[in-house]
Amino acid sequence: MQKKLIFLALTGLLCLSLAGCGQSGSTSPEGGSSPQAEQPAEETAGEDGGRTPEEDGADTEAPQYTDNFSIDTEAVTAFAEQIQAAVAEKNLEALADLASYPLYIGFSDGGESVESREDLIALEADRIFSEELVSEIAGADPGGLAPSKAGFALSASGRPNVVFSVVDGRLAIVGINY
Fold first, then answer.
1. DSSP 52-74
2. Of the CATH numbers 3.40.50, 3.30.530, 3.30.420, 3.10.450, which one belongs to the domain with range 73-177?
């Protein structure tokens, strides 16, 4: 019986040792990270087919945020005001420039995923800028938005709304709901 326990304990240790061999990350005594993790975001962003900030025309000097809770109120307010201006002017191109893709649009007749800026612009402006959406966004308080894991919901009374969040270190629209 004792031999079985010793054998099982040794087998367990061997399994744990082998499982640890397959782990990625640093094996250096300093605890540094792997070389791939040290590459700047601009270098790795384009490798998977995604667009880099330079390709998007984004301001590369803009602050980089880590999550929705790391943003100062002034930045949230300024971004919400940009959304309000684009919606008030019914400027689909300006709205498309503020969005991240794929962009979820929850139309009242069903949700849709818009894959690119061009696809959003191809949608009818009248369909995006419904009377209800324009009214809700115009009546929203851009200075009173509270962060959540999902982001910030810009709306006067809840719905329709425009949801924006931190995406790749910057604020971007991630959803429009009707």
1. PHHHHT--TTSPPPSSTTSS-HH
2. 3.10.450
